[in-house]
Design brief:
Helix content is about 50%, strand content about 10%. It is built from 15 helices and 8 strands. It has a 5-stranded parallel beta sheet with strand order 2-3-4-1-5, sandwiched between helices. Strand 7 and strand 8 form a beta hairpin. Bound molecules: adenosine-5'-diphosphate (ADP) and magnesium ion (MG). Adenosine-5'-diphosphate binds next to helix 2 and helix 6. The site of magnesium ion has 5 residues, from helix 2 and strand 3.
Length: about 350
């Protein structure tokens, strides 16, 4: 199982950014760089492309963690599980530092949300040979080089998605929105003028206050367009993916949590993939982009108890899957903490102790 996303295909309009960032890391490693920009502006794709370009310099030692809003303790546990070091409270940080002192390594911390948790982590690991690339919709951290990320090609006014070039301005050059619009048009379920009319009629040009950087009307409206065409099993699977606190999930888990019988799962997922509403981060592992996730959570309800039970019992039966499902175990731990479920916490602890005493 690869633990780093593949080299992105179809990256457009990032020549200048990539060469600036490459030069920066090459001349200033170990570096700490934060790619900061709104939802769907292309930070994660840029981080993946940068890492692949720099891979030879790091001897192929690339690591990708989706950090989200995990706290410091969970973050160090995540790293310890990945690198097989001790989780013991007092020894965990020194053991991680030892790994990072040994060889140069490029560590991507994707989707940073909690400034104090990331600050504590970077501080605990500072002075090692690790270069950190952080992606963040906003970032209040000192001691880090900030690179603003804007939608590709917006400055040259060129269109990165030729098929929906006419929607570029209306979707404000946002590559995520353009990618979904492009998939919708490619599916032949809507033409460019029809989609344009839908967006205009549903208020895309209105100025309003948004909730945060992942609240993007451009994408939410496209999700709304798709929602009315999706059948119930696809909608339920989209809802499950939106509310999962862990990272990517396989079809069996998504289907089970959505109450979709095995025979209908492939088709239900295919309907979502057709409009590019889901991302297949790793073969057979699905996730939603944070912006799509936010749009979907507004239409659906999650069931954190069901997710807890599903993943904890799955891992109790197949502990070897902890490598791939670890973020769901951390989510389970988090949920048990928040709901003061002591019995649940003990089950999670027992599972973790099996892989890393
Ligand atoms: N430079 C680019 N060229 C083409 N498509 C892009 C580019 N950047 C982003 N995209 C598209 O937009 C989507 C969202 O990009 P992503 O990097 O995940 O955004 P962010 O991490 O900033 O939220 C990608 O899945 C891809 O489809
Ligand atoms: Mg991202």
């Amino acid at each position: 199982m690869r633990l780093f996303p593949p080299r992105p295909r179809g990256l457009k309009g990032r020549t200048a950014e990539l060469s600036t960032l490459t030069r920066t890391v090459e001349s200033a490693a170990p570096a700490r760089i934060a790619l900061v920009g709104g939802g769907g502006s292309g930070k994660s794709m840029l981080a993946a492309a940068l890492a692949h370009r720099l891979s030879p310099k790091f001897g192929g030692r690339l690591d990708w963690f989706r950090v989200g809003a995990w706290d410091f303790r969970t973050l160090v546990e995540m790293l310890a599980l990945r690198w097989g070091t001790t989780r013991e409270r007092r020894a965990v940080v020194p053991a991680l530092r030892e790994v990072l002192d040994r060889e140069e390594r490029l560590v991507v911390l994707d989707n940073h949300e909690d400034d104090s948790a990331t600050a504590a982590l970077l501080d605990a690991l500072s002075g090692t040979r690790a270069t950190f690339v952080i992606t963040a919709r906003r970032c209040l951290l000192s001691g880090v080089l900030l690179f603003p990320v804007t939608a590709p090609l917006v400055t040259s006014q060129a269109a990165a998605f030729p098929r929906v070039a006419a929607l570029t301005r209306r979707l404000r050059w946002n590559p995520l929105a353009l990618d979904v619009a492009d998939a919708i048009v490619a599916s032949r379920d809507a033409t460019v003028p029809a989609l344009d009319r839908y967006l205009a009629e549903h208020g895309i040009d209105e100025v309003r206050v948004i909730d945060h950087e992942d609240d993007l009307p451009e994408v939410a409206l496209l999700v709304g367009w798709a929602w009315s065409r999706l059948r119930a099993p696809s909608r339920r699977m989209l809802g499950v993916l939106a509310h999962l606190e862990g990272d990517h999930a396989d079809l069996a888990s998504v289907g089970a949590l959505a109450g979709v019988p095995p025979a209908g799962r492939e088709a239900a997922m295919r309907a979502l993939a057709r409009y590019h509403l889901v991302q297949e981060t790793w073969p057979g592992r699905f996730t939603l982009h944070a912006v799509v996730r936010y749009a979907v959570t507004k239409r659906t309800r999650g069931d954190a108890d069901a997710a807890f039970e599903h993943y904890v019992s799955l891992l109790e039966a197949a502990p070897e899957r902890l490598v791939t499902e670890q973020t769901h175990l951390f989510a389970a731990m988090d949920h048990a903490h928040r709901s003061s479920n002591l019995a649940g916490l003990l089950r999670v602890e027992r599972l973790l102790a099996q892989v890393a005493p």
